[in-house]
Write a structure and sequence with these properties.
The complex is a heterodimer of chains A (690) and B (592). Chain A is an alpha+beta fold and 690 residues long. Chain A is built from 18 helices and 33 strands. In chain A, strands 13, 14, 15, 18, 21, 22, 29, 32 and 33 form a 9-stranded mixed sheet that branches. In chain A, strand 19 and strand 20 form a beta hairpin. The longest helix of chain A is centred in the first third of the chain and has 31 residues, at 201-231. The mean pLDDT of chain A is 90. By secondary structure, chain B is of the alpha+beta class. Chain B folds into 3 domains: 11-225, no CATH class; 371-537, no CATH class; 541-591, no CATH class. Chain B contains 12 helices and 22 strands. Chain B has helices spanning 11-35, 39-42, 72-82, 168-175, 181-209, 211-234, 290-306, 348-362, 427-433, 544-552, 558-563, 578-591, and strands at residues 47-53, 58-61, 93-96, 108-117, 120-130, 158-162, 165-166, 239-247, 258-267, 270-274, 326-329, 379-386, 392-399, 436-443, 460-466, 470-475, 496-501, 509-510, 514-520, 524-529, 569-570, 575-576. The longest helix of chain B has 29 residues, at 181-209. At the A-B interface, helix 3, helix 8, strand 20, helix 13 and helix 17 of A face helix 1, helix 5, helix 6, helix 7 and helix 9 of B.
Chain lengths: 690, 592
């Protein structure tokens, strides 16, 4: 029996295979036109490497950027929308807030790049009234049929339906869906009360429109991949990683692709989580540093944080789908350093990307990047980059930094390079802080985990800046995300608005809440059963999204296991006060507390990646691992003759004293003087002050 | 602050400290709008937060509503002139809103907490936020009132905490003087939590880098912002640039328009905005506090025009430096610099209009930077009523406008304008909590925006129905003064406002742009139509495909496409008739 994790990135498709012969890693180039080609090719190759029969593969967990790329390139489906008369432009108006305060020439993503053009947003006569959901004006079915005629004329095959107050009563939306399917039988139909059954019209409509926009192509890709895997003689079940870190079936994701918009970065956080478990660490600040950006998130007490759905924007559009709380900033190896016209020293967010790439790539880039600074400081050995696959030209790094930064500032090239590193580290540190300290976590109780090929260069410096306890470098920083795919559970989330004042909730109100929870549990149960999960393995977490009456933002607290009851309402209220205090530093203990949404997470644990522990090392390992030594400049400006060690030769328990540079394929760990690295049981490195 | 800290700081440390103080300001704002209760703060984010030195320089400020950014120094000066005890103690918390002591306008309460370092006062953490009711003559907003005393509670250097001890008398007083006491008090608590966070974070920063280094860096950052702005100003040819227009009325004396005159004087790397010649102060609340609003709007105009964050790679720090090169002149006793006891609560539309005129004035020398006339007003409405239990409900709503056509793109539609940058209230959330329901929220289709190579933005129509009897006050502008087109673009469309009853067949009543304390009945609907922006450049230069898009999207009639844009369409095929369009445009061009 074998399992594969496959993570498709912009450049490479990373694979991890776990079987009775051990765990294997592999990389193939991504095939961006049709990601499935690279995926299937990679699966065949890694099976060969492992020497196993592809029929032995039971499960393939897949992280994909297909849906994400559609939003970035804005090349999704032409979408038709049916909405309530009088509210045709909710998607065009959005929240009416400009993306810039001080600008006359700003872009408005939801107007310049609409998910549904106005001509295809058709207003339908119907009205549902708050607060009860009663029908004031029945649905005008003829208008829907004429709208469908127009869609047919325009060749529109993806239709979304978003009516006002449908979270109170979905009858009109459901009926409209049936009519659309009668009129356009092969339509891809997305319904707002299915996709995001919660209050707030703009966010709900935007979510369902996004689903319709990315839906047809994402669904095609997933089904095509499934077919190609089958055609390739691989009998495995194919699963897709969702933005919230759970895995789901091809069918589930094809119906609701808004749930996989952050599938790619979610793998990284999952990978960090499984590495943290192996190293016996619960609290992790994750920093995934790539070429152009860094993804930052916080894992506290072994749990990922899920973003408040009100904060989730994808390419400028609101999307209310559960996503790992992850912040992306424009700081990476390719980030460009420059001086502005008033002499300010900046690094990023502009990036040289991989084309032309850093100056040292010798592909025409002349602006200095973070990678060039590492080269100048003697941390990246030009002749050994990617095992010598891509030799770098350090002269070009030196020239770029000298001309663009050092000379204009009147400092040495080394000082300029150190400045570049310091500024980019500081930018990342500020984001780590706003993702952790600002949310009430004390970084001194957290280990910082740097990954992505360039991550471990920055680990110690970032840990110092944010006062993290220590640094944990994963086993294979370059493919942490792919490993994460084998470390997560099946998971389905369902949400519904149940606006209920908890302070004066009577038995009737409590019964209504419990009935909604029961209904959502049933939907989740059906999802799991559809996946063939037996009842004993099914697990349901019920979350209450709560706020003070009158507030605009909810916080999450767990719902009592036994269900809501008059006796345990005070517990929910006090849990909320506590959470509010933790998040904002203050609680309004005598204010009315309101239950806003309930959320049910149906999950089933699957077996996590099992790595074999490294064999015990000895201090002789360091000698064996020694490759060569070179002069290297560290962040404090000190220059040391620094040994290069082959990470693969360091056994468990080995302790390396800095300064040292620990090298593996695709990643390099910088260990400054005064720090020591200790090899953990499964091969990760823990760096701390000696 | 110690001015003697002039030792240059290395650019790296400078960048590190800049990032830190900017993050502090953002964290302060985040706490404030997440914690607050009234929708005007939590949804609209009508707030500002930042750090200040003892000379009242803004060291950093959050990216929230521009009207707040740059207003707090005025408050700090006013507090200094009126502070309880005459001095600051560690643990003090001050509330302040007096418009003749530097405030932006009375509903924007400032909360200020002093920052002490080793026993010495070194600066302040402060924020401002709009409160829904501070006990003015009528619920929420006011316009037609006799004087500043009708604006509600006036606070001047008032300590809510003294040396860490809560001044319960004051809190009780506040609670007893608002129609929405609960929200007012809880929102003040949110402001205090935000300011306390600012103090804590700034102290941590000083502990880490040392006080002198931090303030040295702040001074250098202010110089940097100032230098950036001065460089841009010196690119503009010296001279006097003028524009003028008018406001509909003062909210009482109907038909009497109020002139606004703007003269921008550019000399080297400095600018003076001279408002001399604008209307005398009004007898109503339709006046602009000079320190807290007039100056702030003029500063913002040039930040938008010269330091546009969307077109520049470089972000200039939001601090005092960006105010220094600009002088603002408005004679005392005029609408932009009223004398006490004139009321000055309803001041937003004048500020927006002043910015619009500054852009118009600069058009001859900055044709690629300015934009055509925008809605440049605001629609600020207060809806209120009394619940069955005798408690008031009050709801404040900011409605959006539209931008003028721009050198490279159309004016954005239905979006907050110039000094405003709020978020709208989710209609579903509103209807679940307040006895109101929205009847319509769409783009206007009763008029078309200004035509041009780049058309003006389209305004919005929002119709809100009251489900009980109640009272509405509405502050808006430009029912008579239409946003202008520029460089051959045509003018946009004026705003309008109607009240009709949902369950009656009576024709709608046309309302003035500003009305105060209007009694309304159950099922009365206020329908607000915001102005549309003017066009930029000749309509004959607009890409025919864009005209087709506008026709298909319902932004332009086929007739208008033909008559104004010279574009002939095949509507069945949804295509441009290229040959007919070329021919028609040629004829129209020769007739021009």
């Amino acid at each position: 029996m074998a399992r594969i994790g496959v993570d498709v990135g912009g450049t490479n498709t990373d694979l991890v295979l776990e079987c009775n012969k051990g765990t294997f890693f592999h990389k193939v180039p991504s095939t961006l036109k049709d990601q499935s080609i690279g995926v299937v090719e990679g699966i065949h190759q890694i099976c060969e490497i492992a020497g196993i029969d592809k029929e032995a593969i039971e499960v393939i967990n897949h992280g994909t950027t297909v849906a994400t790329n559609i939003t970035i390139e804005h090349n999704g489906a032409e979408v038709g929308m049916l909405t309530t008369k009088g509210f045709r432009d909710i998607l065009h108006i959005g929240r009416h807030k400009r993306p810039h305060n001080f600008s006359l020439h700003f872009e408005v993503p939801w107007q310049n790049r609409p998910l549904v053009k106005r001509r295809n947003r058709i207003a339908i006569t119907e009205r549902i009234l708050p607060p009860t959901g009663e029908i004031e004006t029945p649905l005008n079915e003829d208008e829907i049929r004429s709208a469908c005629a127009l869609f047919r004329k325009r060749g529109i095959k993806s239709v979304c339906i978003g009516f006002m107050f449908s979270f109170l009563n979905d009858a009109h939306e459901k009926r409209a869906r049936d009519i659309v399917l009668e009129e356009i039988p092969d339509a891809y139909v997305s319904v707002s009360s299915d996709v995001a059954n919660v209050i707030r019209e703009y966010e709900r409509f935007s979510t369902v429109a996004m689903n319709a926009f990315v839906g047809p192509r994402s669904a095609w890709y997933l089904r095509n991949l499934e077919q190609k895997v089958k055609d390739g003689g691989i009998p495995a079940k194919l699963r897709v990683i969702q933005s919230n870190g759970g895995i789901s079936t091809i069918d589930g994701c094809a119906r609701k692709p808004v749930s996989i918009l952050m599938s790619g970065p979610a793998g990284g956080v999952l990978g960090a989580l499984s590495e943290a478990r192996l190293a016996g660490t619960d609290n992790i600040l994750t920093v995934d540093i790539g070429g152009t950006s860094a993804d930052i998130s916080t894992i506290a007490a072994g749990e990922m944080r899920i973003k408040n759905p009100r904060d989730t924007l994808v390419s400028g559009h609101a999307v209310m789908a559960p996503m790992i709380d992850l912040e992306t900033i424009g700081a990476g190896g390719g980030s460009i350093a420059y001086l502005d016209e008033a002499g300010g020293f900046n690094v990023g967010p502009r990036s040289a990307g991989s084309e032309p790439g850093p100056a040292c790539y010798n592909r025409g880039g002349t602006e200095p990047t973070v990678t060039d600074a590492q080269v100048v400081l003697g941390r990246m050995d030009a002749d050994k980059f990617l095992g010598g696959d891509l030799p770098l030209d350090p002269e070009l790094s030196h020239k770029a930094i000298k001309e663009k930064i050092a000379d204009p500032l009147g400092v040495s090239v080394t000082e300029a390079a150190l400045g570049i590193i310091k500024i980019v580290n500081n930018n990342m540190a500020l984001t780590i802080r706003s993702n952790s300290v600002a949310r009430g976590y004390d970084p001194r109780e957290f280990s910082l985990m740097p990954f992505g090929g360039a991550g471990p260069f920055h680990g110690v410096a970032l840990a110092e800046l944010v006062s993290a306890k220590d640094v944990l470098v994963p086993i294979a920083p370059g493919i942490t995300a792919a490993m994460g795919l084998l470390g997560t559970d099946l998971q389905y989330e369902h949400t519904r608005s149940v606006i209920t004042s908890l302070f004066n909730a009577d038995q009737g109100a409590i019964d209504r809440v419990n009935a909604t929870v029961a209904e959502l549990k049933n939907v989740g149960k059906a999802d799991l059963e559809n996946d063939g999960i037996p009842e004993v393995q099914q697990n349901f977490d019920v979350i209450a999204e709560v706020r003070y009456h009158g507030q605009g933002f909810e916080l999450r607290v767990p719902m009592p296991k036994e269900g809501l009851a008059l006796e345990n309402v005070p517990d929910v209220i006090s849990a909320f006060h506590k959470q509010h205090k933790a998040d904002y530093g203050y609680s309004f203990d005598d204010s009315l507390v309101e239950l806003y949404n309930v959320r049910v997470i149906a999950s089933a644990s699957v077996r996590h990646l099992e790595l074999t522990p490294l064999s015990l090392g000895s201090q002789d390992d360091i000698k064996a691992a020694f490759m060569y030594e070179r002069e290297t400049i560290f962040d404090d400006g000190s220059v040391h003759m620094t040994p290069r060690l082959d990470r693969g030769k360091l056994g468990a328990g080995t302790r390396v004293e800095g300064p040292a540079i620990i090298i593996q394929h695709n990643s390099t760990t910088l260990l400054p003087p005064g720090y020591a690295a200790e090899v953990q049981d499964f091969g990760s490195l823990r760096l701390s002050k000696s | 602050m110690p001015k003697d800290i002039n030792k240059p700081i290395d650019p790296v440390t400078l960048q590190v400290i800049r990032g830190s103080i900017e993050t502090i300001a953002e964290e302060m704002a985040h706490v404030l709008f997440r914690m607050s209760f009234s929708s005007i703060i939590r949804e609209s984010e009508d707030l500002g937060a930042g750090l200040f030195d003892t000379d009242f320089n803004t060291l950093c400020e959050s990216e929230s509503t521009p009207m707040h950014i740059g207003s707090i120094p005025g408050y700090l000066q006013g507090i200094a002139d009126s502070l309880d005890d005459g001095e600051w103690y560690e643990g003090d918390v001050v509330v302040h809103n007096h418009p003749y002591l530097g405030s932006s306008h009375t509903p924007d309460l400032a909360i200020v907490i002093p920052i002490f370092h080793e026993g010495e006062l070194v600066g302040y953490a402060g924020n401002t936020a709009h409160h829904i009711d501070i006990g003015a003559a009528t619920p929420g907003l006011i316009i037609d009132v006799p004087d500043v005393y009708a604006e509600g509670m006036l606070f001047a250097g008032t300590k809510l905490y003294r040396k860490g001890e809560r001044n319960e008398t004051m809190w009780n007083f506040i609670r007893n003087n608002s129609r929405a006491a609960r929200q007012l008090v809880d929102d003040i608590e949110a402001q205090i939590a935000s300011a306390r966070l600012g103090v804590k974070r700034f102290k941590e920063l000083m502990e880490r880098y040392g006080k002198d280094l931090v303030f040295g860096a702040c001074n250098q950052l202010m110089d940097y912002s100032e230098k950036m702005l001065r460089q841009r100003i010196s690119d503009i040819p010296d001279g006097e640039y003028r524009a003028e227009g008018w406001l509909d009325d003062d909210g009482r004396n109907r038909g009497q328009t109020l002139p606004v005159k703007v003269c921008v004087r550019v000399v080297g790397d400095t600018i003076e905005v001279d408002l001399t010649g604008s209307a005398p102060q009004t007898p109503t609340a339709y006046n602009v506090p000079f320190e807290g609003s007039t100056k702030v709007a003029a500063f913002a105009a040039f930040r938008k025009l010269l330091l546009d964050t969307a077109t520049s790679d470089t972000r200039v720090p939001s601090n005092q430096g960006s105010f220094r090169p600009i002088k603002v002149t408005a004679p005392e006793g005029t609408i932009f610099n009223p004398i006490a006891p004139a009321s000055a609560e309803a001041r937003f539309t004048q500020c927006n209009f002043m910015i619009d005129l500054i852009l118009k004035a600069m058009a001859p020398v900055l044709p690629e930077d300015i934009i055509a006339g925008s809605s440049a007003s605001i629609s600020f409405a207060s809806y209120a009523g009394v619940r069955d239990d005798g408690e008031y409900w009050v709801f404040l709503e900011v409605n959006e406008g539209a931008y003028g056509g721009r050198p490279d793109s159309d004016g954005p539609d239905a979006i907050d304008n110039l000094m405003a940058n709020t978020r709208n209230n989710p209609l579903e959330d509103l209807a679940m909590h307040i006895p109101m329901i929205c009847e319509r929220y769409e783009l206007r289709d009763d008029v078309m925006p200004g035509a041009g190579k780049h058309r003006g933005g389209i305004g919005v129509v929002k119709s809100q129905r009251m489900l009980t009897d109640g009272i509405i006050t509405h502050e808006s502008e430009r029912h008579t003064n239409v946003p202008w087109g520029i460089f051959g673009g045509t003018e946009g469309a004026a705003g309008k406002c109607e009240i009709y009853n949902f369950s009656s067949t009576e024709p709608p009543r046309q309302m003035h742009s500003k009305f105060h304390g209007e009694d309304v009945r159950k099922d009365d609907v206020m329908a607000y139509y915001s102005p549309c922006g003017g066009g930029y450049g000749s309509p004959l230069e607009r890409t025919p495909e864009k005209v087709l898009d506008d026709v298909l999207d319902g932004f332009c009639t086929p007739q208008h496409a033909r008559d104004i844009y010279g574009v002939v369409l095949d509507l069945d095929a949804e295509t441009v008739d290229v040959a007919a369009t070329e021919a028609l445009r040629q004829t129209m061009d020769t007739l021009r």
